[in-house]
Amino acid sequence: MTALELKRVANVIRQDIISMLAAAKSGHPGGSLSAADIVATLFFNEMRLNPKDPHWEDRDRFVLSKGHAAPVLYSALAEKGYFPKEELQGLRQTGHMLQGHPDMKKTPGVDMSTGSLGQGLSAANGMALAGKLDGKDYRVYAVLGDGEMAEGQIWEAAMAAAHYKLDNLTAILDYNGLQIDGKTDSVMCSAPLVQKWQAFCWHVIEVDGHDIDALLAGFAEAKQVKGKPTMIIAKTVKGKGVSFMEDQAGWHGNAPSLEQAEQALKELREEAENLG
């Protein structure tokens, strides 16, 4: 896909996020919206996938370590054809498939059940190491939240990934600067992140997480790295695409009302028109 086409996909994903959260009356819009460009670029350009065979052994793997942002993943899976788009309206509802956090046993296309923060990178390590041991050429992608950088298990996983030279692993940090309790630097400062990941022997790339061309270049660079894993630090805006949600920690875990959803969708549809 071209960068423009991927921008259109990201816009559709953002509309899906708002619609499903409004229907559910609960969930996490801020971090789902901030990751939309990253997820759109991965699922619709970078990753080798087969929606007709979700367990295809040679597929690329995806781990959403920040599992509360499940709506962005569910939208990508539905738009990719893993299940009917109508399922999105059943988010967080009894008797429906899509739970508040990803469940690999219930949802086609989900490679890892996540939600307990800090654990996703360890799971991604295991997938990447298994690929090495099995002689497979698939790649593993893990999206992390910046609040997760305060979890000790992240750094244990970072050390292990470098030790095992997992150059088939790319982690992407959704660096929106906010978490449920406010600014990440105020809750638990994790700076300087570039130098920390480099000190753990990772190749580090910094990009604007809403610039599709920059994301494409970053993923292309990661594929050329040998002997070490790659961390892409993607600077993003929490709530991206919806004016009243942008850069507001209060929208970490609050669903929009029907009126707010209508306003958000109006803005996103206007953006879609501008994209052509």
UniProtKB/TrEMBL annotation:
Q: Name one GO molecular function term.
A: transferase activity
Identify which cofactors the protein needs according to its UniProt entry. Answer: thiamine diphosphate
Q: Which InterPro entries match?
A: THDP-binding (IPR029061), Transketolase_CS (IPR049557), Transketolase_N (IPR005474)
Per UniProt, which keywords does this protein have? Metal-binding, Thiamine pyrophosphate, Transferase
Q: Where is the Transketolase N-terminal domain?
A: 7-260
Q: Which Pfam families match?
A: Transketolase_N
- On the tree of life, the source organism's domain of life is Bacteria
Instruction: State the PANTHER family in the record.
Output: TRANSKETOLASE N-TERMINAL SECTION-RELATED (PTHR47514)
Q: Which family does it belong to?
A: Belongs to the transketolase family.
Question: What is the protein name for this chain?
Answer: Transketolase
